[in-house]
Amino acid sequence: MDYAASTADIEAPALTPQAAHLTVESPLTGHTRRDRAREPRSLARLAVSVAALCGCCTAIFCILAPLAWIPFAFIVWAEHNREPCDQPLPAWLEAYLLYALLMPYCKASILRNFCGWHPEADTDPPPVRVKTFSHLIEVIPIFWMLFARMLISRSHTCRDTSQALYHFVDWYSWFMLIFIVLKLAAGGFGILLLQLWITRNGDFPEWMQDILQKANAASPDTINKIETVTFDASLFADPSDPTDERPSGECCICLMAYDEDLEIKKTACGHLVHRPCLEEWLRRARTCPTSRKDLEEASEDVAESQEQLIVQSSFQLDQA
Questions:
Q1: Which of 288, 279, 271, 276 is nearest to 235 (CA)?
Q2: How much is the pLDDT for 70?
Q3: CA distance 19 to 13
Q4: Which superfamily is assigned to 217-319 in CATH?
């Protein structure tokens, strides 16, 4: 028997999933998304981004705040280091000033001498012993401030004979102890938030990725300073011969075979890469994708040596 659709059947909506599962096309990307599912996640991303930005501002303050008091501490030491005191507060302040001023310049040599670490390049990752010793150096100010608190507690005459020095060491040691504890707490809280972000989203926030890429990227003209190699099949190793020491015939980034269509670049460390692949790589990192050698620095050295050769040859031609 034929069935004729009634007016109610025509006007009734078609069977669809629940409204919570409706998808809406994004006007910017064209991808579909679930609005209700995305709202809590967007709020979480915003909260983590704001917290990470506050952490970065706190880190900058942690670096600049102790350095701002060094000139004032030097003035106090210069004016009051000869005043009588039953505790070696002038020597304590002098030693701390030397540590704060010289450590940024001597830390690398200290790590080399005490840990026996001699990296071939600045990009070489430090071993565990170097990282451990570096962290121990960062903890020295805590023990030095605790030592100041011990000197203050044992002092009986400095409060009267050298008031300015006594009060400066007193409040400065408390300030630095509280400051270091807050810095460690803020750093730990920031790392925890970053871990939660990576766990939920699988990567850094976009603004942090932009900062990291800009900080590690090479200059735009680096790609032009790297040597260009003309394609020749005889330059590359035979895949069937494992003893062939010639370079591989595939790009280490895109894993595509070299041909005459794409330009080939040869880094200062002797590795071959497609120009488009290397150009995209240098927008995010300045090191070789294979050896991690600094390509920007190496290209500048090569350019300087070529300029010197040109100057020397022109000078010889002028003399001739």
A1: 271
A2: 81
A3: 13
A4: Zinc/RING finger domain, C3HC4 (zinc finger) (3.30.40.10)
- Which band of pLDDT confidence, cut at 50, 70 and 90, is reported for residue 2? very low
**272-274 and 32-33 strand pairing:** unpaired
Q: Where are the CATH 3.30.40.10 domain residues in the chain?
A: 217-319
Amino acid at 215: A
Cβ-proximal residues to 67 (8 Å cutoff; 6+ apart), any chain: 100
Which positions ≥6 away from 43 have C-beta within 8 Å?
A: none
Amino acid at position 211, single letter:
I
State the pLDDT confidence band at 166, using cuts at 50, 70 and 90. Answer: very high
Q: Quick check: helix, strand or coil at residue 116?
A: coil
- CA–CA gap between residue 53 and residue 61 (Å, rounded): 12
Terminal-residue alpha carbon distance, the chain: 111
Residues facing residue 265 across a β-bridge: 228, 273
pTM of the model: 0.48
| Neighbouring C-beta atoms of residue 216, cutoff 10 Å | 13
Quote the CA–CA distance of 245 and 235 in Å, as a whole number. Answer: 10
Q: Match 């994708």 to its residue by tokens.
A: 289
In angstroms, rounded to a whole number, what is the distance separating the alpha carbons of residues 50 and 92? 40
Tokens of 95: 């030693």
List pLDDT tens digits, range 263-288. 888 888 888 889 989 888 888 788 88
pLDDT of the residue at 67:
67
Q: Which amino acid is at 235?
A: L
Q: What is the Cα–Cα distance from 293 to 281, expressed in whole angstroms?
A: 13
Q: What is the predicted pLDDT for the residue at 34? A: 44
Cβ neighbours for 12, distance < 8 A, ≥ 6 positions apart: none
User: In whole angstroms, how far apart are CA 232 and each of 97, 257, 279?
Assistant: 62, 12, 22
